[in-house]
Amino acid sequence: MKCYAIGEINFSDHHWVNDYLKNVTPLVKKLGGIYLARTPSVELLEGEGGGSPNGRSYSISFKRSGDEVLP
User: Fold this and answer.
1) Is residue 52 included in any domain, yes or no?
2) Does residue 68 carry a pLDDT above 70?
């Protein structure tokens, strides 16, 4: 079974982003995740909000093993 993490991060200060990405990208891979999308370019098709000029959107897919149980 796959699980997905989808989110948006809004920054007021970008100085930490490169160090964060250097650390979190290998962690996502170690946990079996792959980035499906990671971009500042989001087009809102419906609803309200999203697409902040200071934000980044991402989606990650994780494959769960058969031994795990959902809470």
Assistant:
1) yes
2) no
CA distance 39 to 54: 11
**How many CA atoms does the CB half-sphere of 19 hold within 13 Å?**
4
Helix or strand or coil: residue 30?
Answer: helix
- Judge contact between 28 and 7, C-beta under 8 A: no
The whole model's pTM is what? 0.65
C-alpha dist (Å) from residue 47 to 9, 10, 43, 51: 18, 19, 11, 12
CATH of the domain at 28: 3.30.70.100
Determine the Cα–Cα distance for residues 38 and 57; give it in Å rounded to an integer: 6
The 10s digit of each residue's pLDDT in 13-63 is: 888 888 988 999 899 888 889 999 888 777 778 887 666 667 788 888 988
